[in-house]
Amino acid sequence: MKNLPANSAAPHQAAILAIILVSYVMIVLDTSIVLTGLPKIHQELGFTDTGLAWVQSAYTLTFGGLLLLAARAGDAYGRRRMLQLGLALFTLASLAIGLAQSPAMLIAARAIQGVGAAILAPSTLALLQTTFAEGRERTRAIALYSAVAGIAASVGLVLGGVLAEWLSWRVGFFINLPIGAVMLVAARRFVAESARSGGQFDVAGAASSTFGMSALVYGLIRSAGAGWGDALTQGALAAGVLLLAAFIAIERRAAQPVLPLRLFADAQRNAAYGARVLFMGAMIGFFFFTTQFLQVVLRYPPSLTGLAFLPMTLVNFGVALCVPRLIHRLGNARLLAMGLGLTLLGMAWLSRVDTGTAYWLGVALPMLLIGAGQGMALSPLTAAGVAGVPAQDAGAASGIVNVAHQLGSSLGLATLVAVAGLGAGQLAGAPLLAHRVTVALGSASGMLALALLLVLPCRRSG
């Protein structure tokens, strides 16, 4: 089965695209809403400092651990079915989070929400691949997909801060209820069920990938607090690597593999996966450390912290909408290199902040470059990661893109948190935080430089 021809198999393309975009926005929005709402969650539910980290970590663990399995399940059991399952789990978990009265209840609900996100994220991208024909039509759809992802990440920071300060952090999760309900009805009405792949499901591959990814993500999460020398961190990382090595060996022999290794036969796709890991590591570090800088050094309240990202958000959205025309004129590889280059310039500029930095010159202007670069880079990265993939492997390819996205975020944040304190000496308070931001964003600039080096050969060959 090859990629679907334009307008032949998806008569409700506009409705399907809306379902895809809104469903994906729910995932991205909640991820960033939590960041600016954490202080209020900490205060209201009585979290310890260590326990508070698990508000995000529980979600990350189940999301990252189940991605490969959930992605292939869509190919095996039907993409509409998995989309509806992901929407239902994510929506119900959002209700439970909003009603949570204890740290344990909130963390458990966040873990379930991560399961829903793991099912939902690859389902949306796989549906996009099989609904829109490869070429200009799919380029436009992926550009919108990437644009709303970038916008939702920034808007989530604004919304999370405003809701936490003026209403309640719970409202940020309750808004998923009507949205999720409408998307469930719309999916049943407009999305046709996909053909299911035949053969026996790869149980051994599913188990080894799930436990391997979970162990690896847990080790990365734990390293941020316990350090790389911690025995449990090292054990989890070692177990993750061994299980994933076993997973690859299993996939070589499986008749219906969870992850078809043929997807790694293309050098440009491989470069896109590696560049995405590095890019997401840098960007999660940018959001994490810049938020702290605004709140601790510049003393912005949560609502103003969120609004401080607005210049980046507007530029990101404007540039992302121009991406289809830019790809047509410049090509995917060239635009990707330009986007990474702009993001690198902005990140390197922002890494020079200190306690005397003014917002407009030292933060807002670099954010404009980062926003423009992200707007240029995300869509070409996504397009390169799924380019040339046949429809029967759409779910698996989407899973790899999302795994690269999630692993990049986890590994990047763990690495940047670990290196941020280097050379701090006797610093404390705001000067210490400013130093940590400088070191972390300088390291993030290095990640972006490596990502740019990865994609430059693709530009020369493409």
Strand and helix layout:
Elements: H1 13-45, H2 49-77, H3 79-99, H4 103-131, H5 136-166, H6 171-174, H7 176-190, H8 203-226, H9 231-253, H10 267-297, H11 302-307, H12 310-330, H13 332-350, H14 359-386, H15 394-420, H16 429-461
Helix pairs in contact: 1-2, 1-4, 1-5, 1-7, 2-3, 2-4, 2-8, 2-15, 3-4, 3-7, 4-5, 4-15, 5-12, 5-14, 8-9, 8-15, 10-14, 10-15, 10-16, 12-13, 12-14, 13-14, 13-16, 15-16
Précis, in short:
This protein is 81% helix and 0% strand. It is mainly α and 462 residues long.
List keywords for this structure.
0% strand, Growth Hormone, Chain: A, 462 residues, 16 helices, mainly alpha, globular
Radius of gyration over all CA atoms, rounded: 21 Å
Q: What's the β-strand tally?
A: 0
Q: How much helicity do the residues have?
A: over 70%
What overall geometry do the principal axes of the alpha carbons give?
globular
On the 0 to 100 scale, the average pLDDT is: 84
> At the third CATH level, what is the topology name?
Growth Hormone, Chain: A
N-to-C SSE series?
A: HHHHHHHHHHHHHHHH
**Beta-strand residue fraction:** under 5%
Structural class: mainly alpha
The major sheet is characterized as: none
CATH superfamily: MFS general substrate transporter like domains
Distance between the termini: 26 Å
Q: Any guess at the CATH architecture?
A: Up-down Bundle
The number of domains is 1
- Oligomer classification: single chain
Q: Given the structure, what is the number of helices?
A: 16
pLDDT under 50 segments (min length 5)?
Answer: 1-9
Q: So what's the CATH class?
A: Mainly Alpha
